[in-house]
Amino acid sequence: MDARDLIENLKGHLTCSVCLGYFSDPVTVKCGHSFCRECLLQCKERATEILTCPECRGVIRCKDLVPNSHLQSLAVIGQKLRPHLLQSTVSLTTCDQHGKQEKFFCEEDQRLLCGSCSSAPEHKAHKVLPWETVANKCRDELKETQTVLGETEEEYEIMLENARKRKLWCKENVSTLKHSVMCEYEKIHQFLWDEEYEHLERIQHESRDGLAKMEENMDELSQQIQNLQEMMLEVQNNLNKAPLEMLRDMQGILERNDELLLQEPELVSPSLSSCSITCLREVLLKFWSDITLDPESANPHLMLSQDLKRVQYGSVHQDLPDNKDRNDCVLAVLGIQTFTSGKHYWEVEVENKTEWELGVCEDSAKMDKLCR
Question: Is 336 within 8 Å of 307 (Cβ atoms)?
């Protein structure tokens, strides 16, 4: 093993395997491995986590952390001694061609040169300086780079800490927002439950009153039927009397009959008021489908609007091309859209029409189904 390898091996023994730098306040754990105290403690993110050795994953207890001042001293010495040791290894190199010490460095070729090599034609136009000068320049550049890296690392550490704070804030904010949403929807649910109860109570009240009126109406109709039956029986009995007696009672029977027939029967048909359900239309609109009419399926007496949204009956039979989908049997027209699954909603305005039919066909191509 040459001198450079020995120097690197020494550095390896004095370097923390976590931060890859020389030991700073090193501690040795029960398994025999050593780390910087701060590096080791950073491996444990949360207080509840178990601290394990980064090398062998053995469990580490806080009381097992033993300060290693001897290793700290060796790390300080090694860090200061390493540049001098590396310089000594470089100064010992000799040129294979001329056998002289290589005291110069060519920046273009990035190699050490002896005095004779530096005067050679191939290096005449190159920037050749004493290797100590180049080494010092390189050392200054590396220190500057190290400083920039350190500053960048600090910036990233600050960003990481801010990210942790934002993560914590986000968790707390999400929890608060969820609670707020649940509370607001609980109010909406309570409002809808109250509205549902009011609608059901009103329907129950209206139906109870309507059924009572219908019962009363049925009783009146039954009474009228009974009166008619009694009158019919009286008329029948009068027909069986002697002529003079029949003539005598005839006037009274006709008067009572006229009075009875003047009582026109009335059929009570109570109606239930519609319920205005909150947000029902908004819910239905989630399934809204834009329906247009199919002119190929329209009956010849039906005239469609230009946007295929409206249809109107015309008494004149239109001369339309023959089409297997056209419905000639009844006044009907189909929609262009077809659906194979899902929920769909649309509205149809029938205005003041007194007779109309709406429906859904299984197969729009088989128009004979509408004719049957």
Answer: no
Residue with tokens 């994953």: 57
Contact between 330 and 367 (Cβ < 8 Å) = no
Question: Measured at the alpha carbon of residue 48, what is the angle toward residues 44 and 52, in degrees to the nearest 5?
Answer: 40
Q: pTM value? A: 0.37
Question: What is the SS3 assignment for 30-48?
Answer: CCCCEEEHHHHHHCCCCCC
Low-confidence spans in the chain with pLDDT less than 70: 1-4, 45-49, 83-92, 101-102, 115-116, 118-119, 124, 363-372
Amino acid, single-letter form, for residue 368: D
Residue 231 to residue 35: CA distance in whole angstroms: 120
Q: How many angstroms separate the CA atoms of 116 and 368, rounded?
A: 109
